[in-house]
Amino acid sequence: MERIAIGSDHAGFRLKEFVKKLLKEKGFEVIDVGTHSEERCHYPIYAQKVSQMVSSGEVKRGILVCGSGIGMSIVANKFKGVRAALCHNIYSAKFSRLHNDSNVLCLGGRITGEDLTREIVEVWLNTPFEGGRHSERLQIIEEIERENFKS
User: CA–CA separation, 9 vs 46, rounded Å?
Assistant: First the structure.
C-alpha cells in the first residue's frame, strides 16, 4: 500500500479532509501532518512537514492544500528532490506527471471545488511519467539542485 503525506493550513483544511477520504477509499495509507482544524495557522509549517517526508524518501508523494495552493508550492519546491506542481485543472495535473514527474500536488482550497479536485487527484495519481526527452530535462533540474544545495 502506497503511503501519501498530506497537509494543509486552515484555508485548505476542508479540501484536505475531502482528499484524505478520497485517498483512503482508493487504498492509500494517508499520513496527515495537519492542520487538524480551521483555526488560523501558518502554511509553511505543514508544507515543510510533507516536503521533508518526500525529500527524504519516507513517502513517494505528497499533497498540500492552502487557500490558493501558491504558498504551499513555493515552500515545497525549496526541498531537494521535490517537484511540486500547483494544479487547478486536469490538464496541468496530467502534464505535471507526464512531463515533470511531479511528486507533490498542490491545490487551492478556495479555488477548486470537490468535483474538480476529485478529477485532478485521480489524474495525478494515475498518470505515469513519460520519460524520454523529459528524463533529460529532469537530469538538468537535478544538476541545478546539486549546485544550489552545495552549501
Answer: 7
Digit-coded pLDDT (tens) for 79-108: 999 999 999 999 999 999 999 999 999 999
Residue with cell 552549501: 151
* Domains of the chain: total: 1
- Determine the Cα angle at 143 with ends 137 and 147, to 5°: 150
Residues with catalytic function? 66, 99
Determine contact, residues 37/9, Cβ cutoff 8 Å.
Answer: no
User: Which residues 6+ apart lie within 8 Å of 126 measured at CB?
Assistant: none
Q: Which domain holds residue 94?
A: 3-148
Q: Which of 88, 83, 87 is nearest to 134 (CA)?
A: 83
Asked whether the whole model's pTM tops 0.85, one would answer: yes
Classify the C-alpha dihedral 28-90-107-38 as positive or negative: negative
Instruction: Pick the closest to residue 20 from 63, 49, 61 (CA basis).
Output: 63
CATH number at residue 119: 3.40.1400.10
